[in-house]
Amino acid sequence: MSAFQKETVLSVRHWTDSLFSFTATRDPGFRFQNGQFAMIGLEVEGKPLMRAYSMASANHEEALEFFSIKVQDGPLTSRLQKIREGDIILVGRKATGTLITGNLIPGKRLLLLSTGTGLAPFASLIKDPDVYENYETIVLAHGCRQVSELAYGEHLVEGLRDHEFFGPLIRDKLVYYPTVTREPFRNRGRITDLIASNQMFDDIGLSGLDIETDRIMLCGSPAMLEDLHAMFSARGFVEGNHSKPGHFVIEKAFVER
Ligand code: A2P
C-alpha cells in the first residue's frame, strides 16, 4: 500500500495573490485529531512532492480542507496553486502534530494565536464541539500584514456564526481577534506586542493573561513562535507535548521559504 492516498480536488478558492484554500475528497480510513497535520502534495515527474499541511477541516467533516500560501518559485505551491476541481492530490495516510487539546493541562480559556497560514489548524479546532465543551472561552487571534489576508478567517468565522449547531456556541464562547501590521485596521500590531501590552485583552474586554486559566496554542512564523515561546516561558508557562501536557503547545506554520 502506498504511503499516499489519491484524492480529488472538490473546490479551490483564491483569497489573495498569495493565499488560497481548497477542499478534496477524504478517504473514510483517514483519521485525524483536530489541529493535526499530514503530508500532502502532487505527483511531479512520477514522484510524490509532499509538504506538511494542517487540516483546516474538522475530523467530523466529510471533505478535507487546506489553507495555503502561494510561493511563485516554491517547488510545491507554485504547482499546487494551479489545481482545479477534479485534479488529483496526494494525501499522506498518517496525521500527526502537537496542537491537540490532549497536550494541554485542563484550563478555562483557550488562546489560539496564529499568523498567516498558521490559522489553518485553528480553523479545524474551532469546528470541534469538544473544544467548546472543555473551555469557557476560546480566543482566536490571527495576525497578518494586510487586511486582505484576513479574508479566509473572516469568512470561516462568519460561516460558523450562521451555522445551526455551531452558531450558538460561537456566539457564547468564541472571540475572534484579527490584527494587521502594515496598514490601517481596527486592531493593529503584532500579536506579541498586543499580548505584552495587554491591548488584545483590553480590546476584547477580557481579563489579562493568567496561568491558572489560560491554555495556549501557537502556529505561525518562526519569529512569532520564538518570541511568544520566550514570553510565555518567562511567565512560567510550560510547553506541553505528547508525553507531558503543558500550558502551551507550538506548531510551525508550514511555509515554503
Ligand atoms: P510584521 O508586518 O510586523 O512583520 P509574515 O507574512 O512575514 O509571515 O508575517 C505575518 C504576520 O506576522 C505579520 O503581521 C507580521 O508582522 C507578523 N510577525 C512577524 N514576526 C513576528 C513576531 N516575531 N511576532 C509576532 N508577529 C510577527
How is this fold's topology laid out?
Layout: E1 4-14, E2 19-24, E3 37-44, E4 47-54, E5 64-69, H1 77-80, E6 88-92, E7 109-115, H2 120-125, H3 129-134, E8 137-144, H4 151-161, H5 166-173, E9 174-180, H6 191-196, H7 199-204, E10 214-220, H8 222-234, E11 248-252
Parallel strand pairs: 7-8, 7-10, 8-9, 10-11
Antiparallel strand pairs: 1-2, 1-6, 2-5, 3-4, 3-6
The chain binds adenosine-2'-5'-diphosphate.
Account of the protein in words:
Residues 2-105 form the FAD-binding FR-type domain. InterPro entries: Cbr1-like_FAD-bd_dom, FAD-bd_FR_type, Flavoprot_Pyr_Nucl_cyt_Rdtase, FNR_bac, FNR_nucleotide-bd, FNR_type-1, OxRdtase_FAD/NAD-bd, Riboflavin_synthase-like_b-brl. Its cofactor is FAD. With 257 residues, the protein is of the alpha/beta class. It folds into two domains: 4-92, Translation factors (Elongation Factor Tu (Ef-tu), domain 3, Beta Barrel), CATH 2.40.30.10; 101-250, Nucleotide-binding domain of ferredoxin-NADP reductase (FNR) module (Rossmann fold, 3-Layer(aba) Sandwich), CATH 3.40.50.80. The protein is 23% helix and 30% strand. The protein has eight helices and eleven strands. Strands 4-3-6-1-2-5 form a six-stranded antiparallel sheet. Strands 9-8-7-10-11 form a five-stranded parallel sheet, with helices on both faces. It is globular and about 55 Å long. The mean pLDDT is 96. The protein binds adenosine-2'-5'-diphosphate (A2P). Adenosine-2'-5'-diphosphate binds next to strand 8, helix 6 and helix 8.
